[in-house]
């Protein structure tokens, strides 16, 4: 039987950390967004600076207030594809998902969206049986820094309408990624719903997503069939997870990480308006 850890040593070198940046650094963002193409986004620096200077930490700006001015209404809707590298125990991945959803809801009259989730491992050697979240965080960050991190995350979650729950266990996330990767075979909408359910279980309800029953309950709730057969065999789906990791996540060093239409890259807990600007960039791209 394979151990409940990431089976490939190469994966471990990429598991460095969870992105925690909420404010947008313009230079960093523009460099990241264009690193794969050596071209600048079709937007002015002034526009980006305006977004940055009007965004405060832990403050969610309602994108509906300006989205109508960004996207003209047309009769034809195009599809924007979003690839997300994420780990199921990363709180900023949950924050980013909520903000991404707000942005997509704001632009739904202009675009259709396809969101695809890919695995990343923050703690690839975490034990299958799990350890108390509070003990793990205190050991990893130290007692003083731990208090600050929990306080900050509590405020961020509250700004989104959620209660940040530090009770329960944390541990190895391979089984959750096996299930998420498998869910994509039944449709990306179901995969997206599963990711949301697992995030809520872990961050807001104190459930351990290394627990097979928790995973099965989440799969059943969102209508994913065949989950029991998948999870019964610890080797099933490992190859698919590895392929997804190598293709989408092996070149990054933190999550959440987003690639829009295979070209425009974002990382960290970005606010909705940054996603909207990236949608605009993709829509204005001549190759779109």
Automatic annotation (TrEMBL):
<protein>
    <recommendedName>
        <fullName>DSBA-like thioredoxin domain-containing protein</fullName>
    </recommendedName>
</protein>
<dbReference type="InterPro" id="IPR036249">
    <property type="entry name" value="Thioredoxin-like_sf"/>
</dbReference>
<dbReference type="GO" id="GO:0016491">
    <property type="term" value="F:oxidoreductase activity"/>
</dbReference>
<feature type="domain" description="DSBA-like thioredoxin">
    <location>
        <begin position="82"/>
        <end position="279"/>
    </location>
</feature>
<dbReference type="InterPro" id="IPR001853">
    <property type="entry name" value="DSBA-like_thioredoxin_dom"/>
</dbReference>
<dbReference type="Pfam" id="PF01323">
    <property type="entry name" value="DSBA"/>
</dbReference>
């Amino acid at each position: 039987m394979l151990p409940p850890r990431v089976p490939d040593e190469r994966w471990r070198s990429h598991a460095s950390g969870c992105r925690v940046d909420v404010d947008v650094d313009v230079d960093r963002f523009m460099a990241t967004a264009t690193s794969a193409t050596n071209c600048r986004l079709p937007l002015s620096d002034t526009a980006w600076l305006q977004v940055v200077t009007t965004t405060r930490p832990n403050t969610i700006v309602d994108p509906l207030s300006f989205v109508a001015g960004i996207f003209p209404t047309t009769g034809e809707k195009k599809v924007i594809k979003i690839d997300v590298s994420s780990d199921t125990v990363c709180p900023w991945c949950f924050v980013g998902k909520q903000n991404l959803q707000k942005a997509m809801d704001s632009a739904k009259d202009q675009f259709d969206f396809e969101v695809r989730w890919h695995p990343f491992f923050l703690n690839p050697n975490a034990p299958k049986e799990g350890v108390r979240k509070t003990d793990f965080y205190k050991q990893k960050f130290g007692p003083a820094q731990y208090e600050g991190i929990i306080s900050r995350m509590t405020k961020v979650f509250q700004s989104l309408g959620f209660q940040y729950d530090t009770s329960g266990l944390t541990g190895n996330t391979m089984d959750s990624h096996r299930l998420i990767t498998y869910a994509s075979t039944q449709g990306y909408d179901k995969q997206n719903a599963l990711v949301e359910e697992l995030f809520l279980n872990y961050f807001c309800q104190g459930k351990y997503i290394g627990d097979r029953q928790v995973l099965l309950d989440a799969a059943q709730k969102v209508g994913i069939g065949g989950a029991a057969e998948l999870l019964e065999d610890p080797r099933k789906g490992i190859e698919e997870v590895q392929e997804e990791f190598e293709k989408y996540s092996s070149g990054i060093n933190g999550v959440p990480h987003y690639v829009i239409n295979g070209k425009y890259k974002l990382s960290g807990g970005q606010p909705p308006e940054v996603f909207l600007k990236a949608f605009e960039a993709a829509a204005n791209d001549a190759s779109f």
